[in-house]
Amino acid sequence: MTAKTTKPKTLSPPKTAKAQCLCGAVTMEIDVPARWAFHDHGAAARVAHGAAYATYVGSWRKRFRILDGESYIAPFENETAGITRHFCATCGTPLYYETTRSPHMVNIPRALFTSRTGREPRYHLRFNELQDWTYAGEALGPLKGFPGVLFERPKKKKRALPPPEF
Ligand SMILES: [Zn+2]
Predict the structure, then answer these.
(1) Which of 25, 54, 119, 129 could crosslink 37 through cysteines, CB 3.0-4.6 Å?
(2) For residue 111, what is the DSSP state?
(3) Ligand 1 centroid to 27 CA: how many Å?
(4) DSSP string of 34-102, one letter each residue
(5) pLDDT tens-digit profile of 128-166?
(6) What is the fold of 16-130?
(7) Whole-number Å distance between alpha carbons of 34 and 58
(8) What spacing in Å lies between the alpha carbon of 68 and ligand 1's midpoint?
(9) What band does 118 get if pLDDT is binned at 50, 70 and 90?
(10) C-alpha of residue 107 to centroid of ligand 1, in Å
């Protein structure tokens, strides 16, 4: 028989998740959990981020707040697409975007958050635009002489792709 131990009262998890740009001028927060999270493989997100794809956390606008640095935020409006993307004017970090189609939502890059947002990115938008140079979990090996660098061996010709390992 084990004696009952009195557990110290655990702190409740934070009710907000904070995000910030690279230079730290702009800080934002959302109430958690976020509404949803997703990967966007479309050209606009790819180029705006300079990355293979972008991963976003979608928040209700009323649960999103800019805490500091509002004067550093520069908008780029694409009227044709109905999308306004906001960047930090100092460091160029993509901060959030909003669309005329979903005016009650704000989408913030997942990478800007320093804590969990309450949603895992389980959705892939515009997956048909996935680039063939996007890393998709291929097997990697260490590169001799370069600690921390891994590389993917070139695919052999006339051989079917191995099945995914997960
Ligand atoms: Zn910045």
Answers:
(1) 119
(2) G
(3) 9
(4) -SEEEEE-SHHHHHHHTSS-EEEEEEEGGGEEEEE-GGGEEEEEETTTTEEEEEETTT--EEEEEESSS
(5) 999 999 999 999 999 999 999 999 987 766 556 666 665
(6) 2.170.150
(7) 6
(8) 11
(9) very high
(10) 17
